[in-house]
Design brief:
467 residues; alpha+beta; elongated; transmembrane; transmembrane helix; MscS_channel_CS
């Protein structure tokens, strides 16, 4: 309903602007078509020269001009003097237009080579209000003459608007099943319906006699689009990126993705940005242009994922035994998939340890990679220690610049030390369950994050569909 109200308001504003434009253009046409009268003669241009007699003298020219100025009754005490073809005009009038008219009259008179217009304009308050009243009356008459065109313009524009709305609904009904993206659907149906309304405006302007303006309205929209595109380049880029993202669907609502250095759950895709809910509970808005041009890693597109960790054992320990113990831990754990099968491979021979790299697959929709990794590392450590596999610390080199001091020890402490050294170390008691209370039920964080309270930015428009 809010979108429909907004669209109706835009159409009404366009209707009012078009009616005002037609009104003033029709008023100008009525002014050009009405007959000339004494009250409006000062606006009429002089089309040809004023004939006197061939070879007229300066006195004849001055007399002819004086008679014309007195006949108009626009001037007080008009005087015309002509010397060697130069006409000097004196007197007063109540309008600058009438003063200019007298000068133009003298210029077009035969035998006049130059004009010195010294007619003064009497700008008293009474004459100013009088001219304003005359102009108001003329404007009212022009409005009365133009009302049929105004009515026609209103009817045509309203009809064009109704037809465009009908075309929009038909196009939306036809294309709803063919175009999945709601943003692309809205753009296409508006691109079909708006030209119908523009044709109505073009018809109104043609009826008003403004053919050139009508062509400008229809043909100038491309230039306006280019100007707006340069002025709002970033906004247009994000809008087009949102259109392409909604068409290609690289992710859906609720997917866990990594893009532009941010990892989070997709909450919203609007015409400006993509909103992610990070695993630490913050909303991140990434411009759609950045999302479209960046590498997108979608962790939810495939239900199974592979994870890995590394374990170091001593050189005196059996590598095959360590591999078998770790393999048993992986095969017994319920979160680890049997296919593809887990692998325990020798990665490198380090300075103090033989490093084993462990690969396993798990259901990423149900389980959390961090929680599973914690549980497997805990169980692997317990299995290796209970199986007699040493897990030494990395080798450290200690330098004694002044040598190593030797201290004589008595026999009793030495025997105690030897006795304690010969005693085998017992591994500490560890929890052997698949998941401890601190590790939870190993469930994926995405499910718990869906219930996080808070307002999603710009959630009024969502171009994504949740799975």
């Amino acid at each position: 309903m809010a979108r429909a109200a907004k669209a109706s308001a835009q159409w009404v504003r366009s209707l009012v602007a078009a009616v005002c434009l037609l009104f003033f253009s029709s008023a100008g046409m009525a002014q050009l078509l009405e007959p000339a009268d004494p009250a409006g003669m000062e606006d009429a241009p002089l089309a040809q020269q004023v004939e006197v007699v061939p070879g007229a003298s300066d006195a004849q020219i001055a007399a002819r001009l004086s008679d014309i100025l007195r006949a108009t009754e626009w001037y007080e005490a008009p005087q015309v003097t002509v010397t060697d073809g130069v006409a000097f005009l004196d007197g007063t009038t109540d309008s600058q237009l009438r003063r200019n008219w007298a000068g133009s009259l003298a210029e077009k008179t035969q035998g006049v080579v130059a004009v010195v217009n010294r007619i003064a304009v009497d700008a008293d308050v009474g004459s100013t209000f009088g001219r304003a009243w005359v102009e108001s009356v003329g404007l009212a008459q022009q409005a009365l003459q133009a009302w049929p065109l105004v009515v026609l313009a209103v009817v045509v524009i309203v009809a064009a608007w109704l037809v465009s709305v009908l075309v929009l609904r038909i196009a939306r009904h036809v294309l709803t099943g063919r175009i999945e993206s709601p943003l692309l659907l809205s753009v296409v149906v508006r691109a079909i319906s708006i030209p119908v309304f523009l044709l109505g405006i073009y018809f109104v302007l043609r009826v008003a006699g403004l053919t050139q303006l009508a062509l400008t309205v229809l043909g100038g929209t491309g230039l306006i689009g280019i100007i707006i595109g340069f002025a709002f380049r970033d906004i247009a880029e994000n809008f087009l990126a949102s259109l392409l993202l909604s068409m290609r669907n690289p992710f859906s609502g609720g997917d866990l993705i990594e893009v532009a250095g941010h990892t989070g759950i997709v909450q919203n895709l609007n015409t400006r940005s993509t909103v992610l809910l990070t695993l630490d509970g913050n909303h991140v808005q990434i411009p759609n242009a950045t999302v479209f041009k960046s590498t997108i890693k979608n962790y939810s597109s495939i239900p199974s994922r592979r994870a890995e960790f590394m374990v170091g054992i001593g050189y005196d320990s059996s590598v095959s035994l360590a591999q078998r113990l770790i393999g048993e831990v992986l095969n017994k754990h319920p979160a680890v998939l049997g296919q593809p099968e887990p692998l325990v491979l020798v990665d490198e021979l380090g300075d103090a340890t033989i490093n084993l790299r462990v690969f396993y697959w798990f259901d990423s929709v149900s389980y959390s990679p961090a929680k599973i990794n914690s549980a497997l590392l805990r169980q692997t450590k317990n299995a290796l220690l209970q199986g007699g596999i040493e897990m030494p610390d990395p080798a450290r080199e200690v330098v004694f610049p002044k040598g190593v001091p030797i201290v004589q020890m008595d026999a009793a402490p030495r025997q105690t030390a030897e006795t304690s050294a010969d005693r085998p170390a017992q591994p500490p008691h560890e929890e052997s369950s698949d998941a401890t209370a601190e590790e939870g039920d190993l469930s994926n964080e995405s499910k718990s994050m869906e219930h996080t309270e808070g307002r999603v930015p710009e959630s009024e428009i969502n171009l994504l569909s949740r799975r």
